[in-house]
């Protein structure tokens, strides 16, 4: 029965594509490890000097064995392997070796000699002619394996003729001794050094490097917990290589024999169990029987070995029983790798992984048979070399994962950049669509709103009773609120159109601030607020006056609208070559989370007080106008304490920009005046009676309202609904032309050109509800006054008077 994990997980290592160079590098590293292993195994031992003649050799038991008692001596030959003579592979013995030294010349009597054993117990003592040459009895409490020893021999200890070597050894798995070599140290040093390099130093370096790599992989798993395979691999190689490195530690580290034996066996158990979990995660196959086996081994092996410690302190017999089980766990992992060969997209790396696993299996079997069962003294631990062979393949898989992750990240970045570009384009199109919608909607709405406003004003002038005057007053206030909202939409759409360019000039900030405060004084007085301005008269800015006024009017109006008690202060202070204009209020303040979006259009925070909330466009318009001024509108606010809006403008230092160098489309065509809740004071002058006005307007309600308004002023009105009607019915002369810009069969420019062919110097005024940039450019080219809908009667009366005054 096979159970597959259906949970969502990180992509398996086997799902990654590995580049060809990674395959080649894997095989190169595996070949390098195998080459070092083979060279070390085939390198011969250095021979003895020709002046040395070995004599008889005896072995005396220092401990009781099943076949011999302590003190029993027998003549042997070297190499000596205890199991070949029916003795156990554990115990202690003393070797006595005689040899004859016949120096060939005087140099041999003065040079430093060396005694070399290819295979000798870690724990030993050595005497030459009664002098102690080496004492490794503190290496371990009981001998554990064989090592190569090169022991320096001073020439003064060598006797011409007969000499005697005495060697005591302690073993528990590889009882015996190899044949010694005795020669001048210079003669055998090179060969011994190379053997040490291949048998010890290279192997130690490979294991230490692998241990360091395991630390990196474990850190990767710690950072990315979904990388289970990487974490298991890091744990596997970390424990395995720590176990391997322990082979090179021959000094006593102070651990009791039972504890050191148990820890060593636990390391073997951990590597065997971890490699099973690792292969299951790599192949994404989780057989239930294998999972249960791994759990049983991971729990049972530590418990059984702990229970066996009192009777088997070195765990020799216990490991002889349990170690085959640990080695056998390699078989199902190889089977899983073989079964998963088709799902892998990196077959060369899979093959390398399988070869590495097979080498580990063979090495484990070899070490168990030759070292533990046979006690072969010439055998070396293959697992020390075998475990590193699995490193290149898995490391390549991990590197392939990293490479693909970088490639995916680069692809995602490119995709994100493309999406950002597309979204930006969509947002720009949406913004243009919004601007077009606002322009179209405001144009269509301005016609009836303008008519309502004019009709309301006419109605207000005709009612007589107080009750009717109250109704008309409230109606007028509602119309004013509606007009103000439409003006906000007009301002926003024109600023978004990008057709307005600031035309800076000298601006007296004191005069500007006083004008704005005067405009808001009535609203502030109704709420009991105090308006103040602190702007020294000598400070002048170099800015577009229309845009600057637009910003400050919206800021002050917004402050008055949202402040319930206290007041509003407009202050100006110098900062080098710039002036900072600040609008302070004692309102409710703005929360930190809302301070960024408060400048967005149609955003309303709080409820205000005493006036309509409008559409939430004031600060959005102020920010756009500030951008056109080349500055940034900033905000500081503390909830419950108030807010401060500020902007920096250049100070007038006498430097001027030639007006001829400025664009023709200027801020004079900029947004209309800020919304006002109070009507403009009527002019005392009245247009002269008896004059005729030519009125061209296609919207009947607005045309009728304008006609009634002019008639109230004493004008005679010739009203037409289209250009064709004008050409058919109108007859001059007229003193003024008032025309809508957009007509069913033409534009205001067409009406102006036709009328001036009849009367070349006819004064003209164009009214419009258009906000599109191209329409604004057409109106600017007419070079006549333009009045934007909706408008108050006072506004059109003032423009009529101004137009007539210019004519006279």
Protein model, in words:
The protein is of the alpha+beta class and 808 residues long. Among the domains are: 45-221, Jelly Rolls (Sandwich); 499-669, Histidine kinase-like ATPase, C-terminal domain (Heat Shock Protein 90), CATH 3.30.565; 692-807, 3-Layer(aba) Sandwich (Rossmann fold). Helices cover 48% and strands 18% of the residues. The protein has a six-stranded antiparallel beta sheet, with no helix packed on it. Strands 15-17-18-20-19 form a five-stranded mixed beta sheet, covered by helices on one side. Strand 17 (567-575) and strand 18 form a beta hairpin. The protein is rod-shaped.
Key features of this structure:
about 800 residues; alpha+beta; Jelly Rolls; Heat Shock Protein 90; Rossmann fold; six-stranded antiparallel sheet; five-stranded mixed sheet; 19 helices; 27 strands; rod-shaped; disordered N terminus
- The largest sheet has its strands arranged as 3-2-5-10-7-8
Give the terminus-to-terminus CA distance.
107 Å
Average pLDDT figure: 78
According to CATH, what is the topology of the domain at 45-221? Jelly Rolls
Gross CATH architecture of the domain at 45-221: Sandwich
> How would the global form be characterised?
rod-shaped
Total helices: the number is: 19
Query: For the record, what CATH class of the domain at 45-221 applies?
Result: Mainly Beta
Count of DSSP strands: 27
The CATH superfamily of the domain at 45-221 is identified as Galactose-binding domain-like
Structural class: alpha+beta
The residue ranges in which pLDDT falls below 50 over 5 or more consecutive positions are 1-16, 139-143, 607-612, 655-687
Main sheet: strands, sense, barrel = 6 strands, antiparallel
Percent helix range:
40-55%
- Percent range for β-strand residues: 15-25%
What Rg, in angstroms, do the CA atoms define?
Answer: 51 Å
């Amino acid at each position: 029965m096979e159970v597959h994990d259906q949970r969502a997980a990180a992509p398996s290592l086997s799902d990654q594509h590995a580049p060809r160079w990674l395959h080649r590098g894997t095989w190169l590293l595996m070949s390098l490890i195998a080459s070092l292993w083979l060279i070390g195994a085939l390198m011969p031992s250095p021979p003895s000097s020709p002046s040395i003649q070995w004599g008889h050799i005896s072995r005396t038991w220092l401990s009781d064995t099943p076949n011999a008692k302590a003190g029993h001596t027998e003549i042997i030959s070297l190499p000596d392997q205890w199991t070949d003579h029916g003795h156990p592979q554990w115990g202690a013995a003393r070797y006595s070796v005689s040899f004859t030294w016949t120096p060939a010349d005087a140099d041999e009597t003065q040079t430093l000699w060396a005694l070399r054993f290819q295979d000798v117990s870690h724990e030993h003592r050595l005497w030459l002619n009664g002098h102690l040459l080496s004492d490794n009895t503190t290496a371990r409490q009981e001998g554990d394996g064989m090592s190569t020893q090169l022991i320096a021999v001073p020439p003064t200890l060598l006797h011409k003729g007969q000499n005697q070597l005495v060697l005591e050894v302690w073993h528990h798995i590889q009882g015996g001794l190899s044949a010694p070599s005795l020669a001048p140290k210079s003669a055998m040093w090179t060969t011994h050094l190379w053997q040490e390099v291949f048998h010890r130093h290279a192997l130690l370096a490979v294991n230490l490097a692998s241990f360091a790599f395991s630390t990196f992989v474990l850190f990767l798993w710690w950072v990315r917990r979904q990388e289970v395979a990487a974490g298991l691999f890091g744990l596997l190689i970390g424990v395995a290589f720590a176990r391997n490195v322990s082979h090179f530690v021959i000094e006593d580290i102070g651990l009791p024999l039972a504890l050191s034996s148990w820890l060593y066996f636990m390391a073997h158990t951990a590597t065997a169990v971890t490699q099973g979990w690792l292969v299951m995660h790599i192949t994404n196959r989780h057989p239930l029987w294998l999972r249960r086996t791994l759990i049983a081994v991971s729990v049972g092996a530590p418990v059984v070995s702990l229970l066996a410690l009192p009777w088997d302190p070195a765990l020799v017999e216990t490991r002889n029983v349990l170690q085959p089980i640990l080695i056998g766990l390699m078989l199902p992992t190889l089977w899983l790798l073989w079964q998963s060969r088709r799902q892998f997209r990196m077959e060369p790396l899979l093959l390398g992984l399988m070869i590495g696993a097979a080498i580990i299996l063979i090495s484990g079997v070899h070490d168990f048979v030759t070292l533990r069962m046979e006690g072969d003294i010439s055998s070396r631990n293959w697992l020390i070399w075998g475990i590193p062979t699995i490193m290149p393949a898995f490391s390549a898989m991990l590197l392939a994962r990293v490479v693909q992750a970088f490639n995916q990240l680069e692809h995602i970045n490119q995709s994100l950049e493309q999406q950002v570009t597309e979204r930006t384009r969509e947002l720009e199109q949406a913004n243009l669509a919004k601007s077009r919608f606002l322009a179209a909607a405001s144009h269509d709405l301005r016609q009836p709103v303008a008519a309502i406003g004019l009709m309301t004003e006419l109605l207000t002038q005709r009612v007589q009773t107080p009750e009717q005057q109250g109704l008309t007053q409230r109606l007028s206030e509602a119309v004013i609120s509606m007009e103000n909202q439409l003006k906000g939409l007009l301002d926003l759409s024109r600023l978004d159109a990008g057709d307005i360019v600031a035309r800076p000039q000298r601006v007296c900030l004191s005069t500007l601030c006083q004008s704005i405060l005067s405009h808001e004084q009535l609203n502030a007085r109704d709420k009991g607020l105090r308006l103040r301005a602190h702007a020294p008269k000598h400070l002048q800015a170099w800015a577009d006056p229309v845009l600057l006024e637009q910003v400050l009017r919206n800021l002050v109006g917004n402050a008055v609208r949202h402040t319930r008690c206290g007041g509003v202060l407009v202050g100006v202070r110098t900062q080098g070559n710039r002036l900072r204009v600040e609008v302070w209020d004692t309102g409710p303040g703005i929360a930190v989370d809302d301070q960024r979006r408060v400048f967005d259009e149609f955003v309303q925070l709080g409820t205000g007080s005493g006036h309509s909330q409008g559409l939430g466009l004031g600060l959005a318009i102020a920010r756009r106008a500030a951008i056109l001024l080349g500055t940034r509108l900033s905000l500081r606010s503390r909830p419950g304490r108030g807010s401060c809006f500020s902007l920096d403008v250049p100070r007038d230092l006498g430097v001027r920009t030639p007006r001829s160098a400025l664009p023709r489309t200027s801020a004079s065509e900029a947004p209309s005046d800020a919304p006002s809740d109070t009507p403009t004071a009527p002019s005392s002058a009245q247009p002269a009676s008896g004059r005729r006005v030519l009125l061209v307007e296609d919207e009947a309600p607005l045309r009728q309202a304008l006609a009634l308004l002019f008639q109230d002023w004493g004008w005679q009105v010739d009203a037409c609904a289209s250009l064709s009607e004008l050409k058919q019915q109108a007859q001059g002369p007229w003193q003024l032309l008032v025309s809508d810009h957009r007509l069913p069969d033409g534009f205001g420019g067409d009406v102006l050109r036709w009328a001036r062919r009849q009367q070349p110097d006819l004064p003209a005024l164009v009214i419009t509800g258009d906000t599109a940039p191209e329409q604004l450019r057409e109106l600017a080219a007419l070079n006549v006054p333009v009045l934007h809908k909706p408008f108050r009667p006072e506004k059109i009366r003032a423009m009529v008077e101004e137009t007539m005054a210019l004519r006279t």
